[in-house]
Design a protein that fits this description.
The complex is a heterotetramer, with two copies of chain A and two copies of chain B.
Chain A: E1 12-17, H1 20-37, H2 41-60, E2 65-72, E3 79-86, H3 94-98, H4 111-118, E4 121-126, E5 132-139
Antiparallel strand pairs in A: 1-2, 2-3, 3-5, 4-5
Helix pairs in contact in A: 1-2, 2-4
Chain B: E1 8-11, E2 14-18, H1 25-42, E3 46-50, H2 59-74, E4 78-82, H3 86-95, E5 103-105, H4 108-116
Parallel strand pairs in B: 2-3, 3-4, 4-5
Antiparallel strand pairs in B: 1-2
Classes of the chains: A alpha+beta, B alpha/beta.
The complex binds adenosine-5'-diphosphate (2 copies).
């Protein structure tokens, strides 16, 4: 695997989420970026899991979309920012969707709220007919 | 070896399955089918799912593990999930998930010992 | 000593952690991470959380205790919470909280005795 | 610690709730006042726990605010009155919020209802956009 060499600090990479296999590819890309950024084992696992939840939502609920991985360099701190976006139906009631156990499908309904708890910053931009964009950030060394 | 690419070994009345690094949708479904078929034909009393290799358990994978445990339980077999990595345990709890109804063990060895004790309780 | 300032001692296959007077958010998170790492690397079969010093357990601290117990259970270890003060127990009941899934003991000594009995039950 | 000397009967003290550390400081201040007022061990524990729940709500849900500790002297009885207030979003449905298990966050949802059960008097004044003020009182010797 040459994944580990792909991202220099400050670099941005993106990945289309169109098929089931892309979920795996997305996870691999986030793992490679997290290793490269210097995250510890627990932080890495949390970030990849959060990404996995959101990329799956993008595919399952949003009909597919895009993952953008952005390597943040100091100042102020080193970190990783992921933007997961789709042009799907959007979420009518985002506050409800964030509550654990709320699912309109066959999921456990812990994805959105869980992902929020696993990262340092979480922004959800959505609305009926507007698609869904989630931006998550985790800083190295916390 | 099975059609799901997840090896299932037989140890007396125990089936031992070693999950791989990743658990995707298709593999999971094939594996669950194959496993329940074997539990039934072999008359297995217990299933040990070795998840030592599994690096990420998101809510999708957690659901699969609980569904496999439920399926085996309905067939009359116990299921023990063994060898969860500690970052995975920390992350699952933060996700708000706790694998209800699933027994756990530190390792496959612990699981097999636990299953060989006649007085071993059924729930974690 | 651990990075969370909560000492974790090892007694054979048992880890013994003594919580301090206060349990704040940051300490709790660091402690949970460190404890699960140790459970995993040491192969601990049980964890005793000594809460003799803890003067207040509000719903936040109760959630933390349950989460730590869940994390240890996912790794395959038992968790016993030992030494709860009686005003704390009275208050928890009035709050409507009962630490689901957490085993309890009167003292660390009781907890260790309980864990050394092979037939000890697994559920609180 | 000189905490134990700070409050004479009839005296009022107040404390800002702005940061995580203030939760601990609030608990210490309530404990000192409860000791001074002559509460027994169980009553003390109940009052401090109730305060802890409400001060955390003030910080987490209300975005911070203030705790006022008031030492009540006879007549009619000795006691302690705590006022926890914030200018946050307020509570849309206070009756629902008092029900055990109701939480809009990641909490257990036992804080508000639990605090009410732990004291002798409980007043909740809130509404959307009006902030939240909770006044709790516990009398000595019951
Ligand atoms: N990208 C998205 N597009 C449309 N709806 C979404 C999206 N992400 C989440 N949702 C909605 O929010 C709900 C909760 O999401 P989540 O907590 O991840 O649970 P789950 O995916 O298990 O249903 C989903 O059931 C769905 O209705
Ligand atoms: N000071 C406050 N400001 C705004 N909302 C509040 C406040 N206190 C409580 N609430 C609301 O009431 C709900 C229930 O409160 P509580 O019973 O303490 O549970 P928890 O804090 O565990 O969620 C909270 O989830 C929140 O929505």
């Amino acid at each position: 695997m040459t994944d580990r060499e792909v991202m220099a600090p400050g670099q941005v990479s993106s990945l289309q989420i169109r098929a089931e296999e892309d979920l795996l590819a997305a996870r691999h890309a986030v793992r490679a970026a997290a290793l490269e950024a210097g995250f510890g084992l627990v932080a890495q696992t949390k970030l990849i899991t959060a990404a996995s939840e959101l990329v799956r939502n993008c595919y399952v609920h949003g009909g597919g979309g895009e993952l953008v991985i952005e390597r943040l360099v100091p100042p102020p701190r080193a970190g990783l920012r992921l933007t997961i976006s789709d042009d799907g139906p959007g979420i009518v009631d985002p506050d409800a969707a964030l509550v654990d156990g709320y699912s309109t499908g066959h999921g456990l309904g812990h994805g959105l709220g869980g992902a929020k708890r696993l990262v340092d910053e979480f922004h959800l931009d959505t609305g009926p007919g507007r698609g869904t964009t989630v931006v998550i950030t985790r800083w190295v060394g916390r | 070896m099975t059609s799901s690419e997840i090896p299932i070994l037989r140890l007396g009345k125990i089936l031992l399955a070693g999950l791989l690094k990743e658990l995707d949708d298709k593999t999971a479904v094939l594996f669950a089918d194959e496993l329940s078929r074997q539990v039934s034909t072999v008359g297995a009393e217990a299933v040990v799912l070795d998840i030592t290799k599994l690096e990420i358990v998101d809510s999708f994978a957690a659901r699969i593990l609980v569904e496999i445990a439920t399926m085996a339980r309905l067939l009359g077999a116990r299921v023990v999930v063994a060898g969860m990595r500690y970052p995975v345990a920390i992350t699952l709890v933060e996700l708000g998930l706790d694998l209800p109804g699933v027994e756990t063990a530190l390792s496959v060895e612990h699981a097999v010992n636990m299953l060989s004790q006649p007085g071993g309780s059924r729930d974690g």
